[in-house]
Amino acid sequence: MSKFFGFLIIAIVFASCSQYQKALNSDDIALKSEVANSMYDAGKYNKAIRLYEQIAPSYKGKPNAERMFFLYSNSLYKTKQYYLAGYQFENFSANYPKSEKREEATFLGAECYYKLSPVYSLDQTDTQKALDKVQRFIDLYPNSTFLPKANEYIKELRVKQEKKSFEIAKQYNTISDFKAALKAFDNFISDYPGTPFKEQALYYRLDSAYQLAINSVDSKKQERLVYAKSTYNNLIKFNSNSEYKAKADTMLAEIDKELQQYSK
Fold first, then answer.
1. Most CB contacts within 10 A, which of 6, 159, 197, 251?
2. Does residue 164 sit within a domain?
């Protein structure tokens, strides 16, 4: 009996392959569509894509094209071809504004851009594009069942942008370009007031201000020491129990010591 089922499975596989090859080489659009859909249902998305690509030009503008283009777009998504999938989902949403699948297509299209967003250390152009796409979906469908996921994406993408900006500012501190570091941290704190990196930014701004002041020429030293002390106060005001407090207190002691010479 087990041999029988084994032969049956092999026969089904060969029949499926034969059917696919027949459809692939056929001029019969209906056959291609039928086999493409069966490949999609079976999870054989790459094979489905090849057939959908063949019939797509013939389906444009036809009443039965809506389902085909959604399945084609979703096949690209399932195979992680996110650039093409995002493009196709956007076309679907534009071409079928009354489709019951439009909301899902709009979300999946935005999700494709989210998946294309690179790690924070790389150029963040695609991250901004993803933010725009996901935000547009939220604006269009504020009550969508996809909303929780979309909000997660927005948060993650924004943190990635903030991480990029923070690391750029921190790099100036690392290479001892303290003037550039101060400007970068000021911009960062202003641009991202609610960032999870704020405490770190406040500390490195203090460190940059401290280093610049301590090593400054006499004509600018007092002014810079006073500013450095203000950056200490900003850090402690933000978090009086900061993990950087010990280091910050050491800097403050040195700042106050240096300032004493100006109070005589």
1. 251
2. no
Q: Is 50 exposed, middle or buried (CB count within 10 Å of its CB: 0-12, 13-18, 19+)?
A: middle
Start-to-end C-alpha separation, the chain: 104
Q: Where are the beta strands (DSSP E) in 86-201?
A: none
Q: Yes or no: say if 134 and 156 are a contact pair by the CB < 8 Å rule.
A: no
Scan for tokens 């504004």, then name that residue.
97
Q: Give a yes or no: residue 243 inside a domain.
A: yes
Burial of 139 (0-12, 13-18, 19+ CB in 10 A): exposed
Q: Give the number of other Cβ atoms within 10 Å of residue 148's Cβ.
A: 9
- In terms of Cα–Cα distance, which of 99, 37, 31, 35 is closest to 74? 37
Which tokens is 109 given?
């299209």
User: For residue 248, which of 264, 262, 234 has the smallest C-alpha distance?
Assistant: 234
Tens digits of residue pLDDT in 145-156: 999 999 999 999
Query: Three-state DSSP class for 125?
Result: helix
The amino acid at 199: E
Asked whether the beta carbons of 255 and 261 are under 8 A apart, the reply is no
Task: Please report whether residue 258 resides in a domain.
Answer: yes
Residue range of the domain that includes 185: 176-264
What is the pLDDT at residue 17?
57
- Neighbour count for residue 259 (Cβ, 10 Å): 16
Is residue 144 within 8 Å of residue 103, measured between CB atoms?
yes
Instruction: Give 121's DSSP letter.
Output: T
Question: What number is the average pLDDT over the span 56-70?
Answer: 85
pLDDT-derived band of residue 11, with 50, 70 and 90 as boundaries?
A: very low
Q: How many independent structural domains does the chain possess?
A: 1
The reply to whether 235 falls in a domain is: yes
Burial class (CB in 10 A: 0-12, 13-18, 19+), 202: buried
